[in-house]
Amino acid sequence: MPVKEISAESVRDKSIRHGHISTLHLWWARRPLPVCRAVVFASLVPDPLDDNCPAAFREAVDDLLGPGMHGDPYKPYRDIPYTAGNDPMEDNRRNRLLMFIGKFSDAYIQNEKAGKTTPAKDLLSDFSLIKWDNKNNETIINKARKLIWVAFNSKVSTSETKPSPDSAVIANPATSGMKQSPDYQQLSQDFDVALAAIKTAEADLYAHPDRHVQTDEVTAKEAALQNAIDAFLDRMPKVFDPFAGGGAIPLEAARLGCRTYANDLNPVAHIIEKGSLEFPQKYGKSILYSRHEFIRLYPDLFNGEFGVRDGQTHYGADVPEINGVEDALVRLEQIEASEYIRVRNRLAFDVEYYAKKLLRMTEVEIGHLYPADEKGDKPIAYYWARTATCSNPSCGAEVPLLKQFYLVNKSYKKIYLAPIIEGTKISFKISEGSTKRESWIKRGNLICPCCGNITDSNELKRQFNNKLNREILLVTIIESDNGKEYQTPNFYEFDANSKINSNIYRPPEKLPTSYTKAMAFCLWGYSTWGDIYSLRQLKFLNVFSEKMKGLKELYKIFFSNNYVNSLSIYLSIFFDRIASRQITFTFWDVSRETITNPFGKQAIQMVFDYIESNPFCMSSGSALNQLDWIIRYIVSESPIAFPGNCNNNSSADIVQFNLKSIDAVVTDPPYYDAIAYSDLSDFFYIWLKKNLGQEMPNNFAFPLTPKSEECTALKHHHEEDDDKAKNHFENKLLQIFSNIEKQTRSIVSIMFAHQTTIAWSTLCNSILNSNMNITGSWALDSEYTNTGLKANKAFLSSSITVSCIPNIRSGFGSYKNIKTDVGLTIKKEIKKLYNLGFRGADLLTACFGQAVSEFGKYERVEKADGSEVTVAELLDMARDSAFNAIISDIDTDDVTRFYIGWLNLFGFTEAGHDDVRRITQIGLNINVADLLANHILIRNGNKESLATFKERTQALPRLGDKPESYTIDRVHKAMSLYSGNRQLLVRYIAAYAESPLSVFWRVLNSLKEILPAGIDDEKLVSGLLANKDSLIREAKNMKAQSSEQLGLGL
């Protein structure tokens, strides 16, 4: 896996918005798309350098990834860009495959050498599979599909029968007891023919006028397309994600041309998956309408319901091609004069049309609840504050609970609420400029601005729980020609609110009031989901929902049941996106003047001042704004021809698939109690049940989302018992992995976002006890930063992906033999991966997988006393072996070797004293006392951490001055001098590092490769290396001048 390249693109993935899966519907902890695409692809193709790799696949790599019309885009690096030394990457098939997955661009490499930054969109080569810009690039994607096709079809069973499900190891067709299939040329031709058949069938169907009308001819053309798709998919792997969640993994599997299955127990996730990886791929295609049918289907375009657009546009084409509703509105004259009209994306157009019609129907009924000001400007939002009463008996002021007073806080625009306090009465005016006024509520305690009394949070909660507080409207936010303006609310706004009937439907479903980790607001008197809305918000949501039901009856007349279901689901997703901005826990981002999603921290936080958006406006938080995200996503993913199969099933459904019928599983399981998926998603479930329950009764049969079968360790689902919750999670994960092993004939790739010893132990035990074994592990960091590792943060902060295969453990292994085997395996692995540029945490993570692979061969591994070796002890063994392998190739003193080895494994984080003592005994002649005395380590209680250069030079002012100084002492001394007097630095280099081959420079190179980017140590090391040639040159000149002066008797 090209982990650095994947990590770099994953960071960019987080900032991509338009058309990204994350913008369709909120879901928690989606994996970045580059990680998903890379892991799925790498799970389905063999290593070209492996002895068992089919010859046809090797030929495919040569043909598809060799030099071509664009030069040689997959040629391995001349010098690996993320290592400090000169590290050429061998030009072989494996490395070309890595470069295909992801390769840093020439621009990035040049900028790195020049010390310049590179925009995120330019970090990777334009030919990289995982690059966002290539997700619909047919040239790139079809290379990946053809490589998978060749890998999957390049060998067939010698017996022509299915392997026994009881086989110890049942591998991919590319690697197990097989005979040669047709050669690469034949397989390549087969692929081209199968793909062309899909294109031909698509063109034939989409050219047929009015194909929405189900005639015999249309039915035949639809069947021909489905047959072509099935013929293609029958020769591609079946990929299954049992924890599909937000759908990122199966989306990428479908993109790569696989027959894809996505399971999730949660009905909300199921709805998201259908909208993400089934409907755009199935229905997001062009359609040709006759004029009569177009006008019949979309009458509101012509009757003025959508308004009239001035400046009608005419294009030269005989058949107008319409992109969306707005495009149609400015081309009505051309449409009415044309015999046929082509809509480029039928699904996107219909969703937009009916969503806007639904919004218009709702506005007609309740638009008056959002009155315009005297100039006719409509409000975009209202700023509210909850109040509490000061507990001082002599005061009793009703105080708005404001954490800050800015309405806008930009460098060029500052507006704030200025309090006017008259006795115990508080009012506000809106002022421009800066304010330093402090918060009136801190850590849940009220600081009264009238008397200074502090009312503690317990008293405030008592008031809230007894409904003694209220909410007051402070500001109306208007969108004008001059941008956003802030006004004091007028009579009409207060009047509009007062006229809303309080006898309105409030969702009665109970909140998880004991689960305050993700829903701390429950402590403040909120007990049902209906409590989290204001009256106006509830009025809007109820009317919107009722109008949706009526609208469904209209479009049922025109379309097939399956297509009607897709429209209903997207309108419900539209509802959900609006609803997430229509609760009393959103807040105003004063730096951007936008409404912020209340789920930002995988929780709903208690908010004392909130923003109520106007859903009918055209700005932040509006309904049209939410619709735009949905349309962009549909259009973005419609080019894929292969819909996913979405199932609202338990991840552990053993009867869903035949034994050994799945070719690969790629999944991202939950982890203990990290995220309360079911509790958080109940926010959406209560409305989806109302909006879709009639069409999908089986999916929404229960009051709330399923809890008992969810694979999490949330104690409030288990009688508040931590042990019961933990056991439930571990047993459920083992059950699911066991079923996966029974259903899968080949590889299982598991993404895991936690790298603590407990997490590793749980994951490994679940894998090993389900008759699988780990074959590899990779660190993939979606943050792509190593800064901030000083303050008790785990050096292994990135997520991991482990690859596994079905396996039967047998026999007993001894601790002594396993330790030897692990040591040899890791030493070999480190040498291989080091040549590929792996360093630090990436290297160690890969070693863990190899260690478990040795351990997993045996049913039980015992120590000499008969006790069982645990996974935690195995991981210590792997770490020790990795440390030994890393330091064995460093030609310097033991203290310096320790420093570099420790930095590789732990960075600057703290480690227990026993860990330190154990590591010092691995191939080194040192002891902890000496390391502490020399300030290599710093002690903090019973823990130690590695010292930075600054901590060492401050503690030891004459560090590196003695002839017997360690190399790390000299390096730290030089780093100190580099930030000061250059002449002293040159003199020091002349004395100890005049040769470019000196161990001093080799140690600097090692530090450069593993130091966290951006910290002082890394900057100084980089600076020294950048000045290496000039420093050596100046040092030699200084020596020469000294010799000349000495010869002249000076």
Report the end-to-end length measured between terminal Cα atoms: 62 Å
Using the alpha-carbon principal axes, give the shape.
Answer: globular
Mean pLDDT: 89
Please state roughly what percent of the residues sit in beta strands, choosing from under 5%, 5-15%, 15-25%, 25-35%, 35-45% or over 45%. 5-15%
Q: What structural class is derived from the secondary structure elements?
A: alpha+beta
Order of the strands making up the biggest sheet: 21-4-3-22-23-25-24
Largest pleated sheet: 7 strands, mixed
Indicate the radius of gyration in whole angstroms. Answer: 32 Å
The number of distinct helices, counting runs of at least 4 residues, comes to 35
- What is the total tally of β strands? 30
The percent of residues in helical segments reads 40-55%
Residue runs with pLDDT of under 50 for 5 or more positions = 156-178, 784-797
